[in-house]
Amino acid sequence: MILYSAPPSYYSMIGRLALNAAQITFENHHMDIHVRKEQLAPWYIALNPHMTVPTLVDGKTILIDSQDILHLAATQAGNQWLDIDLNLSPQIEAVVKAHYAIPIERLTFCKAMLHLPILKFIFPRLLGGIIKSLQAQLATAKDPTAVQAKITLNQSRITYFTQGASLKEKMALERNRVSAYLDQLPNLGNFLFGDKPSSADIVTAVLFGRLKMIGEYALVTNHARGLVLDQWFSRMQQQTAFQKSDIWLRFQWWRILLRG
Asked: What is the pTM of this model?
């Protein structure tokens, strides 16, 4: 298996952690999505028309969504994960679904722009540059519908971050989403649902890592069950799979600039 993932990409982290936690052997192909913008290269679009990371290639099978990679990992983990438990699987699926309903990009970039206001001007211009690059590809694209969808998505991102409510109001909304998610988490054992991991542990660990990275981990520690949640995350960080998966707990500008 080859996993095409970007080190700072949130959903790439889910892919890496899921595969490692399930003890699935794979080659991790680092993608430079910021400087070289390899996700827009024709060879990559042929693998993943959505131009996103991660992408998992296993022979002729190609998975282009972290949720599908997570499901594959859970399936291959078998009785080593609690997803196989028919009594628990609906609850696990509900937590995973609630996680994917959190717009991580909005949480991350709202926080970044509040921390460094100059980014309010830089981000829209960067997105505008990507839109121009994609528009130049439309005429020769093998899948112009996918390219147009990416253009539309980036235009909607610009609209979100430059129009409507203030960034502070938008950030307050995203914090409320995270707090609501924390409210849904079960009473913890060693893992979220017992003595074995599940898909819910994977996505929640990456979420907590992102909160650490952007300086919003107080949402966890100040929660009504903050001490228990924090202790759970400490245990997760001690897991070999977590340590192998390059989960960013702090922002690493130098790695983006050095493309590694």
From this structure: 0.96
